[in-house]
From TrEMBL:
The keyword Oxidoreductase applies. Keywords: Oxidoreductase. It comes from Vagococcus silagei. This is Peptide methionine sulfoxide reductase MsrA. The lineage of its organism: Bacteria, Bacillati, Bacillota, Bacilli, Lactobacillales. Has an important function as a repair enzyme for proteins that have been inactivated by oxidation. Catalyzes the reversible oxidation-reduction of methionine sulfoxide in proteins to methionine. It is an enzyme of class 1 (oxidoreductase). GO terms for molecular function: L-methionine:thioredoxin-disulfide S-oxidoreductase activity; peptide-methionine (S)-S-oxide reductase activity. Its EC number is 1.8.4.11. It holds the Pfam family PMSR. Residues 5-155 form the Peptide methionine sulphoxide reductase MsrA domain.
Length: 173
């Protein structure tokens, strides 16, 4: 059994490893979604003219790891109060979005966002959007599994995110 989840949470380099480590995850692919041209390149997406967001497409076995569990992992990788990017990555292509692929995912995402809002964990409003999935385009090969290919660079780019996670997610919600 397979299902797909699509999450945007800033630079896709930093969004692969958190999901990649769990049983039931079949693949985590870096790519682009939500835009208006087919098969965009990294340079086009970074220019801001395509409307795409960097995201990860996670194929998973829901009998081993549930969509709710993926949502909990997702929330703990992002700053859900920052609509204009994530950490040092700024702009629309880095905005936080949960892209749902079916009505069940939409309902679960809305409920998890509400639970996070009601938890009082953040002083500012939760601004992560929940949107219907659009075509997902795999990013260039050098972006795939970046944390494995360039661990030193990955840790440098991930440090601000990790500091935020350590400050805000000592306990789950």
């Amino acid at each position: 059994m397979k299902e797909v989840a699509i999450f945007a949470g800033g630079c896709f380099w930093c969004m692969v490893q958190p999901f990649d480590q769990y049983p039931g995850i079949l693949s985590v692919i870096s790519g682009y979604t939500g835009g208006h041209i087919e098969n965009p390149t990294y340079e086009q997406v970074c220019s801001g003219v395509t409307g795409h967001t960097e995201a990860v497409e996670i194929t998973f076995n829901p009998e081993i790891i549930t969509y709710n569990e993926l949502l909990n992992i997702y929330w703990q990788q992002t700053d859900p109060t920052d609509a204009f990017g994530q950490f040092e990555d700024r702009g629309d292509s880095y905005r936080p979005v949960i892209f749902y692929t079916n009505d069940s995912q939409k309902e679960l995402a809305l409920k998890s966002k509400q639970a996070l809002t009601e938890s009082g964990r953040f002083m500012n409003p939760i601004v992560t959007t929940i949107e219907a999935a659009k075509p997902f385009y795999k990013a260039e090969e050098y972006h795939q599994d970046f944390y494995k290919k360039a661990p030193n660079r990955y840790h440098l780019t991930h440090q601000n995110r990790q500091d935020f996670i350590d400050d805000h997610w000592k306990e789950s919600f």
